[in-house]
Design brief:
The chain crosses the membrane at residues 73-95, 107-126, 160-177, 213-234. The structure is a single chain. This protein has 14 helices and five strands. By secondary structure, the protein is mostly helical. The chain has one domain. α3 (72-98) runs antiparallel to α4 and α3 (72-98) packs across α5 (125-137). The two termini are 26 Å apart.
């Protein structure tokens, strides 16, 4: 392995970064809590989250109902500007709910996530929860972190055009990849998610029609494609500054994404809802101000596609034995 990368991150012949250390967030959490024990006051639920979820689902479903009346060009514009933005916001609402940040009871959070899943068509909320909590617990684990690009995936989508095709279709890669990285063992809530979603979508098709369903599908696709909000998928853990594994973004798009841009802060303290992560950064600035942060998710997409030094291999990986509890 090439040892040119800093702070213990070594690159293999394919370009993946490898670390012999555990993921960085647990240790930083311990340090911050020791110095600022009042951070625990930020833990808990966000009472407004449930109202935001209901509002987003309602707007998206009403928009889909009327979308078939639009000319095809306006249909596409509406699905990109409005539909994809709401879909992505719902992605990130489900992300918040996977950490049980709307209600004290886990079951209540699960039910709200299943409700938020409705405009996504496919029942993914509970599967996402499983994989996402695994991503937190085993960040960079080559066999358990499904957020890492598969080596075959990284080897296939190379160069400017390869990365452009991948970025355009990244939502499909995120859907397919876990099947190869770590196939899911279905449990009760996964079946509940499916048992709820499919009848609801069937009823929606009956009353609104297939073109309304198409609006939802195109919105979901655009939400995980070349959309400004989709830049956060790449911004969070792709190595843009050697030696750093997780990256934050503090720009205005956080207002549409439940502050997911505060990503170092989120990984350090997943029990703090997004609405209070800015308070964490303000409380412990010396732990975050010196870290490299992105200024634009759109620029992240552009740089990822056009910069030959950044690719799907630009992720920190670690052997399973290094990150197992």
């Amino acid at each position: 392995m090439d040892t040119s990368a800093s702070e213990g991150h070594k690159r293999d012949k394919d370009g993946f970064y490898w670390s012999d250390d555990a993921e960085p967030h647990l240790e930083r959490r311990k340090e911050i809590l020791k110095k600022y024990p009042q951070v625990r006051d930020l833990y808990g639920v966000d009472p407004s989250l449930k109202y935001k979820v209901f509002g987003l689902v309602l707007i998206q479903m009403i928009s889909a109902y009327f979308a078939p009346n639009l000319h095809w060009s306006l249909f596409l514009v509406a699905s990109y500007v409005l539909g994809a933005t709401i879909s992505h916001a719902l992605f990130l609402a489900i992300h918040e709910l996977s950490h049980h940040l709307a209600f004290k009871k886990r079951a209540h959070n699960n039910w709200l996530a299943i409700f938020a899943n409705i405009p996504m068509i496919f029942p993914y909320a509970m599967s996402f929860k499983t994989y996402h909590l695994m991503h937190h617990a085993e960040q960079g684990d080559e066999h358990h972190d499904a957020d890492l690009p598969h080596p075959v995936e990284a080897g296939f989508f190379k160069g400017l055009w390869g990365k452009l095709v991948w970025a355009f279709n990244q939502i499909l890669c995120y859907i397919i990849r876990p099947l190869f990285v770590h196939p899911l063992k279905m449990k009760k809530w996964h079946f509940i998610n499916m048992a709820f979603q499919f009848p609801v979508i069937a009823v929606f098709i009956y009353f609104a029609g297939w073109q309304a369903l198409l609006y939802l599908a195109v919105s979901v696709f655009f939400a995980g494609s070349l959309h400004p909000l989709a830049g956060h998928f790449i911004s969070e853990h792709y190595v843009f500054e050697e030696g750093q594994e997780t990256y934050s973004y503090y720009g205005p798009l956080n207002k549409l994404s439940f502050n997911v841009g505060f990503h170092n802060e989120h990984h350090d303290f997943p029990r703090i809802p997004g609405s209070r992560l800015p308070k964490l950064k303000k409380l412990a600035p010396e732990y975050y101000d010196d870290l490299y942060a992105h200024s634009s998710w759109t620029r992240v997409l552009y740089k990822f596609i056009t910069n030959s030094d950044i690719s799907l291999h630009s992720r920190v990986r670690r052997k399973s034995s290094q990150n197992r509890k």
